[in-house]
Design goal:
Elements (H helix, E strand, L loop, with lengths): L5 E5 L5 E6 H10 L3 E6 L6 E5 L1 H18 L5 E6 L5 H16 L3 E7 L8 H14 L4 E10 L2 E8 L4 H7 L14 H4 L1
Parallel strand pairs: 1-4, 5-6
Antiparallel strand pairs: 1-2, 3-4, 6-8, 7-8
Length: 188
């Protein structure tokens, strides 16, 4: 299927044979019992290579398979709450989210509003912040809480908080209260 009259030929071992007529290139490929494959059609003259095309395709698909294997697929899990979800039930869902985050998955926390609950989005925002604080030791907020229609959601991703956030979370040393006098006479 090569239409050029002359081609730049690369041998079966990778050596550059040079510019040869197409008939000679086909003859060399038959002698080597391999295929003549056009590698760069846009070059002047086109570049062709003598190779085993079936083996080439097999190795290429094998490399693609290996590349797909090494890719990490991040799964997004979701926990759904309502503004009236009590702390006990929220604890179950938070425990599941912790397990998923430790497995390397992302977690979307969604609060769904029904009816007039939408008029109090601050309740859902407070719930989402509490969940983020509970999971703050292993997760970072990737997408801040946002209201979309009748749902408010945020996305958590596994990872350690930055130094700045960790410093804010540490307990600050408080000043010790002044020692009270032991006897009432010492107070005067």
């Amino acid at each position: 299927m090569i239409n050029a009259s002359e081609v730049r030929l690369i041998g079966a071992d990778g050596e550059n044979i040079g510019v040869v007529p197409i008939q000679k290139a086909l003859q060399l490929s038959r002698e080597a019992e391999k295929d003549l494959v056009e590698v760069a059609a846009g070059a002047e003259p086109p570049v062709c290579r003598i190779m085993d095309f079936g083996k080439f395709l097999f190795e290429r698909t094998k490399k693609e398979r290996e590349a797909r294997k090494s890719q990490t697929k991040i799964e997004v899990k979701e926990i759904r709450l309502r503004p009236k979800t009590n702390e006990h039930h929220r604890g179950f869902k938070t425990r599941d989210a912790r397990r998923w985050l430790l497995d390397g998955m992302k977690v979307r926390v969604t609060v769904r509003f029904r009816g007039r609950e939408i008029t109090y989005p601050e309740l859902a925002l407070e719930d989402l912040k509490e969940i983020a604080e509970e999971l703050g030791d292993i997760a970072v907020v990737e997408q801040a809480p946002a209201l979309e229609g009748k749902t408010m959601s945020m996305v958590l991703v596994a990872g350690k908080p930055t130094k700045k956030k960790a410093a804010e979370g540490e307990a600050k040393p408080e000043k010790a209260p002044a020692a009270a006098p032991a006897t009432p006479e010492a107070a005067n």
